[in-house]
Amino acid sequence: MQPIDLPGPKAKKYLERDGKFISPSYPRVYPFVMSHGKGTQVWDVDGNRFLDFAAGLAVTGTGHAHPKVVKAIQEQAEKFIHISSDFYHPAWIELSARLNDIAPFSEDALTFLSNSGSESVEAAIKLARHHTGRSQFIGFLGGFHGRTLGSLAFTASKSVYRNRFFPTMGSVVHAPYPDSYRPLLQTRAGEDYGETVVRYIEEQILTRLLPPDNVAAVLVEPIQGEGGYVIPPPGFFPALRALCDKHGILLIADEVQSGMGRTGKWWAIEHFGVEPDIVCSAKGIASGVPLGATIARKSVMTWPKGAHGNTYGGNPLACAAALATIELMEEEYIQNAAEVGEYAFDALEEIKVRHSHMGDVRGLGLMIGVDFVKDQETRQPYKAFRDRIEQLSFKHGLITLGCGQSTIRFAPPLSISKAEIDEGLHVFEHAITLAERE
Ligand SMILES: Cc1ncc(COP(=O)(O)O)c(C=O)c1O
């Protein structure tokens, strides 16, 4: 397999101009300069083809430029592009009704629309305070919820996100996330590690730091995304839900990365048998058109007129794209995510047998993480090796992105075929083999 000479001449020119005009804060990892995409395939400005196993960071669930999504956007654009949230329009109302149908709780849902994941989290934080009249929150180490000052108060995946931005909103105490591959707490006999974490919250945080009746909500990712594609043990969510119920604390599921069919169900929390009170969604919801949604039980979204709003909420292009996305998910892609996800997971387990630096392979549906370790026994993270795999995969035509300390995430379009998984994993294994030889 021959490496591609990257960046190519046209890409080089764009990178130079980018450096002159664009904020240096973006965490770019390698020089992919996109020209266009179709399904799982993307091309750069020099005509090089890649398989996209990152989907614009778990966004383009229906694949790049799905004809039905493109048509929905075009048709809406010809009618009108914007009207402001002071008024009404059919696609907004229809989308909110569809989100009510698919919300992961039995009670009716009301939805607040915004433009990003961070904003969907901000709205959830404000709603939780408004509804409960309480001010404090519990978040999780390794969590990522955005970079606005409210959502940043919860984000605890890397300190660079917080460096020089203090004070953030405050009022958030972080518990360890239930990562049973690298646990921070000691489990007692008869407990799974998820239950251990909830016991820690009850016995330490709610006893020493936060009076329970001051706590508005727990904000948690059902599967931790930026933190390393970490899946909690089965005991975690039932115990957490019971703790929240005991103290009148709201449970907010941040499904910005894990939701909209990615795990083979509409929402990742559905794998764990509990119902949250508020759900944050964005990324995959509109196939790449910016849209955030804060979906709450009707009995929780009790704030009055004027309490929260925005200019672009319910943007018609985003609503049209989201309606088309939901239809495609329902028709075939959620099912495909479950089936092809399992296929990819099994293939990765097979690859792992041949490579000693591959540690934990974990995932649900098409949200799969491969952790790299210095040694499979000690499980010590091998960040440099992971970074090298990311670069070598790119050089051989595969787009991947890292997460956590030493994990590569697979978050391809949910429309991906088994043949595309085979092709991508062939490149991935080649990259591992090359890194091992270096
Ligand atoms: C779980 C989660 N919440 C919130 C966000 C923030 O979303 P955005 O970047 O759209 O503001 C992200 C982004 O990666 C995320 O993964």
Broad structural category? alpha/beta
SSE pattern, N- to C-terminal: HEEEHHHEHEHEHEHEEEHEEHEEEH
Shape designation: globular
Q: What characterizes the major β-sheet?
A: 7 strands, mixed
Q: Please give the domain count.
A: 2
Number of strands: 15
pLDDT < 50 runs, ≥5 residues: none
Continuous helix count: 11
According to CATH, the fold-level topology of the largest domain is Aspartate Aminotransferase, domain 2
> Class of the largest domain, according to the CATH hierarchy?
Alpha Beta
Compute the CA-based radius of gyration: 21 Å
Summarize the structure.
The chain is α/β, with parallel strands linked by helices. Helix content is 37%, strand content 16%.
Structure description:
The relative contact order is 0.16. The mean pLDDT is 98. The protein is globular. The protein has eleven helices and 15 strands. It has helices spanning 9-21, 55-58, 67-79, 90-102, 117-132, 149-152, 193-209, 236-247, 316-353, 383-395, 418-437, and strands at 34-38, 41-44, 49-52, 109-114, 136-140, 172-175, 215-220, 250-254, 278-281, 292-297, 358-364, 367-372, 398-399, 401-403, 407-410. By secondary structure, it is an alpha/beta fold. It folds into two domains: 9-66 and 333-437, Aspartate Aminotransferase, domain 1 (Alpha-Beta Complex); 67-328, Aspartate Aminotransferase, domain 2. Bound molecules: pyridoxal-5'-phosphate (PLP).
